[in-house]
Automatic annotation (TrEMBL):
Name of the protein in question: histidine kinase
Organism annotation: Rhodohalobacter mucosus
Keyword Kinase: yes
Enzymatic reactions: ATP + protein L-histidine = ADP + protein N-phospho-L-histidine
EC number from the UniProt entry: 2.7.13.3
Entry superkingdom: Bacteria
Pfam families: HisKA_2, PAS_9
Domain CHASE: 104-201
Amino acid sequence: MNSSSHNKVNIRHLLLSILTGLVFGVFVWYVWRLDYAEAEQDRRDIAVAQSRLITERFIQRADDEIERLRNFKRRIETHDDNPDLLWEFETDLILAQSLSVPFIQWISPDLTVLRSYGDPDYLSLEQLDPSANDQRRAGLRQSQQDSLLSVSGSYSFRGDGDESQDEKFFIIDIPVYRNETYIGSLAAGLDFDMLFDAVMQQRETYSVKLRDEDGNLFYSYGEHSQEEQNGDLAHKQQLDLYNGRGGFWYSTIVADREELRAEIFANLKLNLVLGFMFSALVGAALYFILGFYSAKRSYGISNRKLRAVIRSSPLAIYTVNKKGIVTDFWNSAAENMFGFRTREVTDQYLPDITKESAVEFQQMIHSVLGGEDFYMEESTRTRKDGTEFDVRVFATPTKKSGGDKGEVLVMVENITLQKETERELQNEKQVSDTILKGQPGLFYLIDEKRHLVRWNKNVNDFFGLTDAELNEMNFLELFIEEERLKVLEAIQNANNTGELEVETVVRSGGELYDFYFNGTLMTIGQRRFIVGNGVNITERNRTRDELQRSLDEKEVLLSEIHHRVKNNLAIIANLIDIQLINIDDETMTEILRETQNRIFSIAGVHEMLYDVKNFSQISFKEYLRKLFRRIFDLYEDKHHLTSYDLRVKVEYLNINQAIPLGLLLTEFITNSFKHGFDRNHAGLITIEITGGSDLIHVVYKDNGKGFETDIFENSSSMGMILSRSLLKQLSAEYSVNGENGFEISFSFTTRMRGAHSTLN
């Protein structure tokens, strides 16, 4: 019985829903027909507007092609260098880019075709030859006479007399002047079929006819069979396509009524479908609304599921009435959080149990029952054992099932652990802030956008800026404008290398300061930061500059001293030259010459030191070449057959050892000339100097007469005494061989400071 009754009720609901849907469907059809009529009128207006747009696009495309040729004409007028290259380049470019220019010609003032480029099929037409076509000749003459661009048209491409198959094209003549003198005409063909077909793409609902000033049809697009039936959709317009001599073109554009109607239906079809769907939804909604009451029976099941969710929630959940009495729920999370069982709190005033503020509690209830959700970020509650803990509270209004009294659903989250973590973080922040305050220099932390994130108090004090001002600033604004690019490059480099290092300039209190900034790239989560420090190096740089200036002054002074010493030694040598004029004694002359050699040996070192920047080292190889050349010049008369072989592998030597070594070699060479070689003897002096940064090895030998080694050790002559003294000054270890000439080899260690000179 109950089952049969239930089925009848469902059938009645279904029939009522279907009837309601049909009524709505009829209404939708009526409204849609009104929209269709309005849309049809709109499409007529759109068709006329679209026709105007098509005409404007024709004008624009044609004018663009003509302007392209005008630009070519201007380049001919202004460029008279290498016309062949200009014509080859420009015509190739125009013919490649243009859809409507099949050929280009250059016609001389006497109407001779000098140049032709483009489609051979067009260029072979007799119509293009001014000498063979009266129409072409007249057009060119008129264009030259008026000094204006002219368009002659229209010509047939096939020329077979069948108008339906002819390719119509125009010829444009542009007179060209250079220095106000006519030099010829630029002629080009204009075939607009492809150009205008491109305009008509995706406009298949329109048919087009274009006629020239004589009424000749030169362009057609689409079907024209329904032109009479669709007269209200036709648009006729006169076209003025160019500035110059010529007539007008006329366009007729007609829209296809059936295509427009199909388009309207396609656009409104969705509305009709949606309307019918809405009607069906209304019927279905009515059916489901009627079935709502049967679904209400499942409420009890849903309520039990909700309670299961509340019981398993990690938040403490309970409900209180407007008096603050606990009425429902008090889930297991609340029991664990507060330590009270459900029976201990039910029908109890909650502040008496949780020790929370009664005033705040009543304010919460009043606010929630007033229709507002309540949220308290932080508060404190007390457990049954008397311990306190931190909580976050959220409350929302509800109604008790089956009653009309307002109740409040309260959810409490234990945030004690979170608060402890926050306090630890705050303590760590205080420690880090204390460290930053004691940090020397300008500490900074910037993000990817170069905004300051953290800084120490030194930054505020140095720049005189508040925290609020620094918080709004970009890091680059701390530097003078001329230095910002350098600092930006250093930051970008740090993003790649992980390290920032730059010396730059900042401004503070109207004064400029040199600073050294360093930093390190670090990543926190997905964000990248640069943390670093800035150190004021103004005083360091000032001291460095002062030291550099002092060093430069001393180098100049030392260079001048060497120059003056060299000059004084040169004066002494010149005085000896003067003295030699009045001396006839050969022995005395030889002694003075030897003295001159020694003076030149010392002066040569000072001369080289005058021109170098490093006074601790001289180019010893160059020094020896000059010294030996000087000595050999002195003995050129007696020993012109003597030569020397200089093998110096040591490039530089310090002054403390260069002077004694130079004097020593001077003594050896002088001794070879005086005692080792006879006149006209082909003598050979070989000097080999090798070594490195620690030890220098020297070998001197000649192919002269030679002598006993005891003579070198015991001789009391000035030359031998000086040689032994110089070897001692160099702290050299040596060995002498007097067979088959004179040979001495010795070695000494390199050092910056040499021993004092002595003849003992």
